[in-house]
């Protein structure tokens, strides 16, 4: 009996830091948000209970729904480019490639570089008036006028490219870890049976990688739907809302001081938007998990 | 194996280097504060009076960086010479000043004295951060600053929280060399002239990457608040879309200005990429001689002296008006506040002693003469010499400048006027409908704010834009 109490005490002691941190940094803010989404609150004075008003406003808030649409374009573009590219790189680097470790380091580097640095660098590369991309294109006589990469027509493409550049190395590394867990004798047996490289990839690599891929794709979906940092720094959601994704829209409601003249914080409405965005991301992730269940079952 | 470690080592070295570059801007604040701490500590060793007692420690927070060397010197002088055994520690914030103040107050670690600006004072008062200073104001101080004690600027609900020091004028900033090259003798007096000049400059300069006009359209509201605001106030209208005569928002005059901006965009007279341009990259391009003109605050001369030194011949001039006629006055902005005392301070008397020292004539006079801001306190304006900064002469307060009554700050549902009008500028649409929609949404937000007691509006049918303070 005494031993059980002692164990319980030890377990509680070891778990307490994570329980306290989860409660303070995860559960408390969540409860705070769930409460304030029913209030009109600007961060001072008494919060005013408004019932479902914030959600009614959300339904007619065209800016929010435009940002949801932009998020799908941004996330879709990022996923479509990032996942195949990172898988391709992982497969290439999984082989015996000269300088493979150095290349892994180089490809992974964007993951650990500050978003602020990445954004500034890409702004100087893509801006219309003296950006390097336009300078190169004009020097090669591929275009006669500078392309407005950060203008209304191309800004989304540009921020997607920046996001892809920043994410490929990360997913490449996760795919690589999955590839290295595939037993080598499977490939050897297949080779003896006469399977070529393409067939080995299709019949061994992809199925064996499926459980890892399921997780990687899920992480990629969540990260793509939630990503906004580089957009905030490069275009601030503009021009004319063309790159305004939903988490950036949410950020501006909660921390509006970053843009020009001051506008009041909208903590109540921001909480409702935060809840809606969480529901959207959660639903998409849940649907994906449901549809991809087979990937986790090796036949 | 060695190659593997070399690869990992190289990657880590570069990554750490780059990650280091992206450090939080607040580091600069900390380092400044650190340096000042050092000086403060040094000074505390030999306080001039009551050396046996520990000194009264005050914290002063500001987000002004342009004047920090001067302010640091003044604080050191105060620490060395004050007879009340007060030591002030300066902290210069860089980004997110308001959020840092919020956090400091919610964690009971607020500074004793704060830098107040027109954009944050009302919010700080509503949040209960500030101590009224009425009890400290002597007759002399009231006489000196009295004309600049204004409702909803530094006085809220009859209580005074700060005093004026400097303000910003707004001007058209233009490159004289480019204007001369395009055969334009004078800066534009009307918006039509501005459109024509921008077109001419672009025609002459485009081959060299020179364009007629630019603004920091990455944040359209910030761009319009430094340009259209001044165009309108000089034309006889309040510059943020508020009609002081009716006490309602009316964006009709605003929409007239937008038409001219749209024409410049369609003409191709605006610097390509201005849609994503921040103010500093814009200034860099202007300093490089690539922009004919833009509109901005009287902080620009200091910027071109220190931040982007330039050889180009440039000047500031009054903003153009709707029809070339001056029917109003150019609004002096960000005037009326400078320092304030925290309601949480345990040493409010000492905080006032420091504040009074900072508001001394000599400090305010030198502040103006060094070009950190344009003095608006009449007694200082009388005795101070002109700042010796290239370009400042065009920004000095003159016969066409004045303070305007404050317009209510409201947050409407949907897009703000900056985003809505910028969208029209780029993508077109029905301008009358956009204006009507803005009027409806801003006036609805105003009604709600009035109902909640957050703002008070008193229509003034007799309001005269040529004499806004009456």
From TrEMBL, chain A:
Protein name according to UniProt: Sugar ABC transporter permease
Segments forming a coiled coil: none
GO cellular component term, pick one: plasma membrane
Domain of life: Bacteria
Record keyword Cell membrane present: yes
Entry's family note: Belongs to the binding-protein-dependent transport system permease family.
Signal sequence, renumbered to the chain: none
From TrEMBL, chain B:
InterPro entries for this protein: Bact_solute-bd_prot1, SBP
Taxonomy, superkingdom: Bacteria
Residue ranges with Low complexity bias: 28-40
PROSITE patterns for this protein: PROKAR_LIPOPROTEIN (PS51257)
Keyword Protein transport: no
Keyword Chaperone among record annotations: no
Signal peptide start and end residues: 1-19
Keywords: Signal
Disordered, as annotated region: 28-56
Record protein name field: Extracellular solute-binding protein
């Amino acid at each position: 009996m005494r031993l059980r109490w002692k164990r319980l005490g030890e377990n509680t002691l070891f778990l307490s830091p994570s329980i306290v941190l989860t409660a303070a940094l995860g559960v408390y803010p969540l409860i705070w948000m769930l409460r304030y989404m029913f209030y009109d609150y600007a961060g001072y004075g008494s919060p005013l209970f408004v019932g479902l008003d914030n959600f009614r406003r959300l339904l007619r808030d065209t800016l929010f729904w435009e940002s949801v649409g932009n998020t799908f374009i941004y996330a879709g573009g990022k996923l479509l480019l990032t996942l195949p590219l990172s898988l391709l790189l992982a497969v290439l680097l999984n082989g015996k490639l000269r300088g493979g470790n150095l290349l892994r380091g180089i490809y992974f580097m964007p993951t650990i570089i500050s978003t602020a640095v990445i954004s500034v660098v890409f702004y100087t590369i893509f801006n219309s008036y003296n950006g390097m991309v336009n300078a190169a294109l004009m020097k090669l006589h591929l275009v006669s006028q500078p392309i407005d990469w950060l203008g209304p027509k191309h800004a989304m493409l540009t921020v997607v490219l920046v996001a892809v550049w920043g994410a490929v190395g990360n997913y490449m590394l996760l795919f690589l870890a999955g590839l290295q867990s595939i037993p080598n004798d499977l490939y050897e047996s297949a080779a003896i049976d006469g399977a070529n490289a393409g067939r080995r990839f299709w019949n061994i690599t992809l199925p064996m990688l499926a459980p890892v891929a399921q997780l990687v794709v899920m992480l990629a979906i969540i990260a793509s739907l939630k990503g906004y940092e580089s957009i905030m720094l490069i275009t601030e959601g503009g021009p004319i809302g063309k790159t305004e994704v939903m988490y950036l829209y949410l950020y501006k409601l909660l921390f509006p001081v970053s843009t020009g003249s001051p506008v009041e914080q909208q903590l109540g409405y921001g909480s409702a938007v935060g809840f809606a965005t969480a529901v959207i991301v959660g639903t998409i992730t849940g649907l994906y998990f449901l549809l991809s269940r087979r990937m986790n079952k090796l036949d | 194996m060695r190659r593997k470690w070399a690869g990992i080592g190289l990657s880590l070295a570069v990554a750490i280097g780059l990650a280091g570059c992206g450090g939080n801007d607040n580091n600069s604040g900390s380092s400044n504060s650190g340096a000042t701490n050092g000086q403060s500590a040094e000074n505390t060793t030999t306080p001039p009076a009551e050396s046996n007692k520990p000194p009264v420690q005050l914290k002063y927070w500001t987000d002004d960086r342009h004047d920090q060397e001067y302010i640091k010197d003044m604080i050191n002088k105060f620490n060395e010479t004050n007879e009340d055994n007060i030591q002030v520690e300066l902290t210069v914030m860089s980004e997110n000043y308001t959020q840092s103040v919020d956090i400091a107050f919610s964690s009971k670690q607020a500074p004793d004295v704060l830098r107040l600006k027109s954009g944050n004072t009302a919010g700080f008062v509503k949040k209960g951060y500030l101590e009224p200073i009425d009890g400290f104001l002597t007759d002399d101080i009231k006489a000196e600053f009295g004309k600049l004690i204004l409702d909803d600027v530094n006085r809220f609900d009859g209580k005074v929280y700060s005093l004026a020091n400097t303000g910003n004028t707004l001007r058209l900033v233009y490159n004289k060399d480019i204007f001369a090259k395009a055969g334009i003798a004078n800066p534009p007096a009307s918006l039509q002239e501005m459109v024509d000049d921008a077109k001419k400059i672009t025609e002459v300069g485009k081959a060299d990457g020179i364009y007629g006009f630019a603004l920091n359209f990455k944040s359209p509201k910030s761009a319009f608040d430094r340009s259209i605001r001044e165009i309108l106030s000089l034309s006889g209208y309040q510059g943020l879309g508020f009609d002081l005569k009716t006490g309602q928002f009316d964006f009709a005059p605003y929409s007239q200005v937008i038409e001219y901006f749209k024409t410049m965009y369609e003409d191709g007279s605006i610097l390509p990429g201005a849609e994503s341009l921040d103010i500093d990259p814009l200034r860099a391009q202007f300093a490089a001689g690539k922009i004919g003109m833009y509109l901005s605050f009287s902080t620009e001369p200091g910027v071109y002296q220190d931040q982007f030194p330039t050889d180009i011949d440039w000047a500031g001039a009054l903003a153009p008006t709707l029809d070339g006629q001056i029917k109003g006055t150019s609004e002096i902005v960000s005037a009326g506040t400078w320092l304030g005392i925290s309601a949480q301070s345990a040493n409010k008397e000492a905080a006032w002693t420091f504040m009074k020292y900072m508001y001394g004539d000599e400090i305010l006079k030198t502040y103006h003469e060094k070009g950190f801001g344009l003095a608006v306190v009449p007694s200082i304006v009388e005795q101070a010499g002109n700042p010796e900064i290239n370009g400042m002469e065009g920004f000095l307060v003159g016969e066409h400048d004045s303070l305007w009554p404050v317009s209510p700050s409201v947050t409407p549902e949907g897009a703000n006027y900056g985003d809505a009008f910028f969208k029209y500028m780029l993508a077109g649409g029905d301008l009358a409908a956009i204006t009507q929609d803005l009027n409806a949404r801003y006036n609805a937000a105003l009604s709600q704010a009035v109902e909640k007691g957050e703002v008070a509006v008193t229509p003034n049918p007799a309001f005269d834009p040529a004499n806004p303070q009456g």
